Amino acid sequence: MLSDIDNANNLVELFLRRADEKGDAPFLGTKKDGEWVTQSWREVAEQVCLMAENIRKLGLNDGDRVALISENRPEWCIVDLAVMAAGCVTVPTYITNTERDHAHILDNSGSRAVFVSTEKLLQPLHPAVQATGIAEHVIGIEDLKRQQAGSFDYHDWADMLQGDADAARKAVDARIANIKRDQTACIIYTSGTGGAPRGVLQHHGAILCNVAGAAEVLIEDFGIKDERFLSFLPLSHAYEHTGGQFLPISVGSEIFYSEGLEKLASNIEETRPTVMVVVPRLFEVLRARIMKQVEKQGKVANFLMDRALMISDKAVEGKRRKRDRPMDFVLERTLRPKIRKRFGGRLKALVSGGAPLNPDVGNFFEAMGLTMLQGYGQTEAGPVISCNRPKTGLKMDTVGPPLRGVEVKIADDGEILCRGELVMHGYWRNQAETERTVQDGWLHTGDIGHLDEKGRIVITDRKKDMIVNDKGDNVAPQKIEGMLTLQPEIAQAMVSGDKRPYIVGVIVPDAEWALEWARANDEKFDMKALQDLPAFKSAVRGAIDRVNKDLSVVEKVRQFTFADEPFTIENEEMTPSMKIRRHVIRGRYQIRIDSLYRG
What we know:
Layout: H1 2-7, H2 11-22, E1 26-32, E2 35-40, H3 41-57, E3 65-69, H4 74-85, E4 89-93, H5 99-109, E5 113-116, H6 119-132, E6 137-140, E7 153-156, H7 165-176, E8 184-189, E9 199-203, H8 204-221, E10 228-231, H9 238-250, E11 254-257, H10 264-271, E12 275-278, H11 280-295, H12 299-316, H13 325-331, H14 335-342, E13 349-352, H15 359-367, E14 372-377, E15 384-387, E16 407-410, E17 415-419, H16 431-437, E18 438-439, E19 442-451, E20 457-462, E21 467-468, E22 474-475, H17 477-484, E23 490-496, E24 503-509, H18 511-520, H19 527-531, H20 534-548, E25 557-562, H21 582-595
Parallel strand pairs: 1-11, 3-4, 3-5, 5-6, 6-7, 10-11, 10-12, 12-13, 13-14, 24-25
Antiparallel strand pairs: 1-2, 8-9, 14-15, 16-17, 17-19, 18-19, 19-20, 21-22, 23-24
C-alpha cells in the first residue's frame, strides 16, 4: 500500500487506482432526509472523470485555477479531484469568507471558474465575481437562483456530469499520465492570523509525501481494515484536505461528512468512525462536557474518573504501577466503555492538529481509553510535519517524531526547520515572502522548539507570537492561554505583554459556568451585567490565580479585562481553523489593555 503511494505520479492517479480496486464498496457517505447514504468508489470515479471532461469543455486549460466554495460534502471531494483530473489547480475557499475575502482570493489566484454549493454561499461570492471580472464560469452544486451574470456564465451540476463515462475515463487517464509529482495540485490560502491570506502552492508530491507518512502510522500502529473517517473540519483547510480526504483515499477508506458542530456528537454515534481529525478546541469542549456529565452522576462515577486520571498521569511520568492494574481492569469494564460509546465505539485514533494541544487535554482522553495522536505542521508543509504515535511513545507535551520522508533540524535561535518533498514550492505571486520562508530547501516554520531524547518535536511557541517583556524575558502566550481555557470559568483567553513589565489577559467567561454562577448568586443572567459585578470578577480572578500557581514569575497573569463578546470567525477574531487573531483582538481592546498597566 505504501509503495502505491510512493510510486503515484499524482493524486488523481492514486484515487483512480483505489477506485478500481474497491469497485462497488462504499466510499462517500452523507445524510439525506434523515438517513445516511453512500456512493461507491466506482460511482465517484465515474463522476470525477465526467466532471473533468466538462471542465475542459468550458475552455479551461492546463494550470488554470478553479475556486471551490462549499461546506464539507461528497461533491467537495468530486470537484477537487475533477479539477485536478482536468489538469487544473483547485483553489479551496472558506465558506465563512466575506465578499472582500472572496475578491482577494479570486483576484490573487486568477481563478477562471468557481464551484459554489448553495444559494446562501453565492450571496457574498456573486458581487466578488462581478467586481474582479476574472471568473468566466460559476457552477452550482445545488440549484442557484441566477442573478444578473454580467461577464460570466452559470452552469448546473447535472450538466457537468453529462457524457460518455468510458470515453471520459480514457481521456483522464491520458491526461494525468503527464501530471508529475512536482506539479501544483492546489493553492491553499492560509487562514491568516495576521495580514491578508497568502496562497500556498501545494504540489501533488507534497500531499502524497504527507499521506504516505500518515498512512505508515495507521498501518504500523493500528493496522488498516475497514477504516471510516468522519470529516468535520473545513476541507478548505490544508489539515482536513490532506488528513481528512487524501489520507483516507490513499488507504482505501470511507469518508462520512458531518452535518456540522451542532450535530457532531450524534453524527459520531451514528457513523461510528475509526479515525477522526479534529482541532484542540473541540477536544477542550468535549472534555469539559464529559467532566460535567460525570460530576452529576455521583460519588462512584467521580471516584472512577479520579482513578483513571491518576493512572494516566503516572503512565505519562513513566511510573506504571502493578498495584494500579486491578483498578485499570475495573475502569475497562465500567467508565471507559461508556465514554468510548459516545465516540461510536470503534475509534482507533483521535488526531489533533491545527493548533497546540494542552497536554492535560490529551492525557484526559488517554485516561478515558481513547488514543490521542497530536500532529504538527503548517499549510506550507503539506501540512503535516510530525505526529505522535504509540510506536515511539505517546508523550502529550511533544508532537511526535517527523513523519517518514521529513527531515527536521533546530536553528541556532530555536526555530524549527523542515526539509523534504512536503515543502511547498512557494507562495503564489509572492516571491519575496517565498524566499524569506524557504531557504536552501529548508522551510522556516516560525515555531520555536527542540527535539527530545527520542527525536520527538517539542514546541514552545510561535516565533512571531513570542512575548518579550520589558526585561527581555521570553514568554510563550499559547501555553498560558491553554492553561487558562482549561478552567471551567474561562472559555477563551488572549494574553499580552510585549515590551511591558508583566502579562495581562483578555478573558471570555464560559457561558455555562456564568449561567450557573448567576443562579447560585441570585443574579439575572446577562453576561455584560455580570462582568460589572465585583463578585463575578473575583470568581474569574480565582480561576486565573489557580493557573498562576503553576506559572513562573514572568508568566503570571497579573491583570485582566473582559472581552465584549466571544472570539469568533464572524467578528474576525478567530481564523476558520480556530486560532485566535492576536492583532485583531489587541487592536479592538488596546485601550483596555493599556489601562491594565496604569495605577
